[in-house]
Structure formats: structure tokens, C-alpha cells
């Protein structure tokens, strides 16, 4: 953890430049869900310039340019956030913000919209025409309604669940990817207790150990009622009635990512949601045997990019498919 890298290249608030040196601490959280990416940032503002002159407060737009100056990951990308709260404490503005596109998806719709027998990609293109869409193609489309007062985010969550997919916004692209079709091909390797030879050396890790709890939530007897065919069911466990009347959608309700391990390591912009990597842990023995109790190939479910001063670190939550 002795190597140090810069992540944040520039910060703007409502179009005005903020000195990067005044950003004392920053965490950028990327998640593989419609929860949306988040920003937590502390800005030195003893004179109140950013608060009063730049209007860094609730509703302000923050634009951040991220870059990997050592060409170790993605080169440059820009994220825009909307501030949710910005209290002042001891001369520090403690900013919490949501990624702009994700926040807009959570706003209530002013009118109803109907999508009849459409593929997810076509629906997403209508809901978010300004974003690049990376969406798998599925066997058949489906019908969805966005009611007035409902949110696009909830509609997309329902659609992802029906198709057994993960949907999230990451670095200017909206991803809608089937977990069944997701290729478990190693993109990089994370390794603990082998700092000299590891591609990415894990400094600390903790086993989450809540697989049974997640399975208890996901693995249920999903059922639906149709006036022609009657009751259809899929799965075992407690009965859960849903409105979807397609058997494939019933089968997909239990699909998800179950978190397994939480790791901390030197930062790298290559770390992002649904990237697949090998996780190698060594037993604390002289012969450094590999701990085979941990699934080797895992999927990034959440990653926090953390910068304090010129130190850049990552905390990653990894998991496995529940199919």
C-alpha cells in the first residue's frame, strides 16, 4: 500500500472550478444496481467561498474528471453529481451527492408510458436517449407500464429482475447484462499474502459470510395467476406472488449476485462493477498454501474509489452468481 496515485483531475461546482488541493478527502462509489453511484467529498472552505459564491449546497451540480495518470486503467472519464446534502463542520463542506442520471431516474414520472412487447434495449433507449446503452439481446420482449407518479428506476429494476439481469450506470454507459450470459472470464487477479508477485495485492480482507441470508431472500416459490392458465409457480421456499405471467420471468426472480468477500487494496480505475476477477487467498502457513474455501472467480458488486491527499485506494465487494 506504499504506492500513491492521483485519481481526481478536476472538480467543478455549477461550472466553477474548485482547486483539487481543497478536496481533502473523496469517495466515489460504483454499484452494480439501480441504487446509483454516489459521491462523498470533503472540501476545505474556511472562508465560505464554495458555499456562498459557488453555491455548493443541496441541488448544486458537481462535475468531476477522473483519470488514471499512470495509464493503469481507464484513461479519462467525467461524472456529474447532484448534491443531496452539504453541511459545514469545522471549515469543511461535507458533500454527499448522487450521480446525475441515476438521480433523474428516481424522479416521479409526470405521465404514464407504455412499452408493449419491447426488448429491454429499446425500452432503455426511450427512457435514457442521451446515454450509451450496453444491453444483451433476449429471446423475446415484454410489456411494461410506467404509471404517472412512478419512477423509471423502479421500472428498470423490475425489468432487470424479470430478465435475470443486472442494470446500472457506469462511466457514461447504461449496462443491462444477463447474469446467466455473463462470461466468467478473468480480467485481472487479486491476491493476498503474495505482494511481490501479485498482479493486485490485497492489503486487507474480510469474509462477509452472509450467503445463507441472501439465499433466504432470493430463493422463494415465485407464483403468478393467469385467468386462462391459472397458477404458475417456480422455485421452492416461501410463496411470493408477483404480477409477471411468463414462466421464464418466474425462473429469473431468484437470480442475483451474492456478496462473498470485501477487500482493500491499492486503487486502480480498472476496478468497476461486474468485472470478473480471480481472488486468491493464501493460508497463513509457512508453505503459503492457497485457501480453496473461497470461490476463485468472483464478480465485482461494488467498488469504492477513495482518495485522500495523493493516496488512491479501493475497497471492493465481490460475490458470486445465484442462479
Detailed description of the structure:
The chain has helices at 49-52, 100-105, 120-127, 152-162, 211-218, 247-252, and strands at residues 8-13, 16-18, 23-31, 38-44, 61-67, 76-85, 88-89, 92-99, 113-118, 132-135, 142-146, 165-170, 173-178, 188-192, 200-207, 221-226, 230-234, 239-241, 256-266, 276-280, 297-308, 311-322. The chain is mainly β and 323 residues long. It folds into 3 domains: 8-104, Beta Barrel (Thrombin, subunit H); 106-178, 3-Layer(bab) Sandwich (Phage tail protein beta-alpha-beta fold), CATH 3.55.50; 188-322, Elongation Factor Tu (Ef-tu), domain 3 (Beta Barrel). It has a 6-stranded mixed beta barrel. Strands 10-13-12 form a 3-stranded mixed beta sheet, covered by helices on one side. A hairpin with a 2-residue loop joins strand 12 (165-170) and strand 13. The model is unreliable at 1-5 (pLDDT under 50).
Structural class: mainly beta
The helix tally amounts to 6
Do you know the CATH topology of the largest domain?
Elongation Factor Tu (Ef-tu), domain 3
What's the overall geometry?
A: globular
CATH class of the largest domain: Mainly Beta
Uncertain stretches of 5 or more adjacent residues: 1-5
Q: What is the helix/strand order?
A: EEEEHEEEEHEHEEHEEEEHEEEHEEEE
Main sheet: strand order: 14-15-19-22-21-20
Number of domains: 3
Biggest sheet descriptor: 6 strands, mixed, barrel
Mean pLDDT: 89
Amino acid at each position: 500500500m506504499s504506492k500513491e496515485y492521483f485519481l481526481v483531475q478536476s472538480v467543478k461546482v455549477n461550472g466553477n472550478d474548485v482547486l483539487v488541493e481543497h478536496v481533502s478527502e473523496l469517495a466515489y462509489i460504483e454499484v452494480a444496481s439501480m441504487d446509483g453511484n454516489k459521491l462523498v467529498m470533503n472540501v476545505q472552505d474556511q472562508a465560505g467561498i464554495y458555499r456562498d459564491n459557488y453555491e455548493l449546497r443541496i441541488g448544486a451540480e458537481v462535475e468531476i474528471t477522473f483519470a488514471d495518470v499512470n495509464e493503469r486503467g481507464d484513461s479519462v472519464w467525467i461524472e456529474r453529481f447532484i448534491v443531496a446534502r452539504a453541511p459545514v463542520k469545522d471549515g469543511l463542506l461535507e458533500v454527499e451527492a448522487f450521480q446525475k442520471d441515476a438521480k433523474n431516474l428516481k424522479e416521479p414520472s409526470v405521465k404514464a408510458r407504455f412499452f408493449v412487447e419491447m426488448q429491454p434495449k429499446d425500452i432503455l433507449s426511450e427512457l435514457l436517449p442521451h446515454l450509451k446503452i450496453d444491453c444483451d439481446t433476449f429471446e423475446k420482449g415484454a410489456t411494461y407500464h410506467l404509471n404517472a407518479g412512478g419512477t423509471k428506476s423502479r421500472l428498470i429494476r423490475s425489468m432487470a429482475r424479470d430478465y435475470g439481469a443486472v442494470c446500472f450506470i457506469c462511466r457514461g454507459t447504461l449496462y443491462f447484462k444477463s447474469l446467466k450470459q455473463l462470461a466468467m472470464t478473468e480480467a485481472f487477479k487479486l491476491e493476498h499474502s503474495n505482494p511481490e508477485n501479485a498482479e493486485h495485492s490485497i492489503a486487507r480482507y474480510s469474509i462477509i459470510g452472509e450467503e445463507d441470508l441472501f439465499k433466504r431472500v432470493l430463493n422463494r416459490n415465485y407464483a403468478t395467476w393467469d385467468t386462462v392458465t391459472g397458477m404458475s409457480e417456480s422455485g421452492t421456499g416461501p410463496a411470493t406472488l408477483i404480477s409477471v405471467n411468463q414462466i421464464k420471468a418466474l425462473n429469473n426472480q431468484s437470480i442475483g449476485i451474492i456478496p462473498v468477500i470485501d477487500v482493500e487494496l491499492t486503487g486502480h480505475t480498472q476496478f468497476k462493477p461486474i468485472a470478473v476477477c480471480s481472488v486468491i487467498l493464501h493460508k497463513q502457513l509457512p508453505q503459503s498454501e492457497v485457501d480453496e474455501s473461497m470461490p476463485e472467480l468472483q464478480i465485482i458488486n461494488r467498488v469504492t474509489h477513495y482518495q485522500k491527499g495523493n493516496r488512491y485506494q479501493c475497497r471492493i465487494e465481490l460475490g458470486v452468481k445465484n442462479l
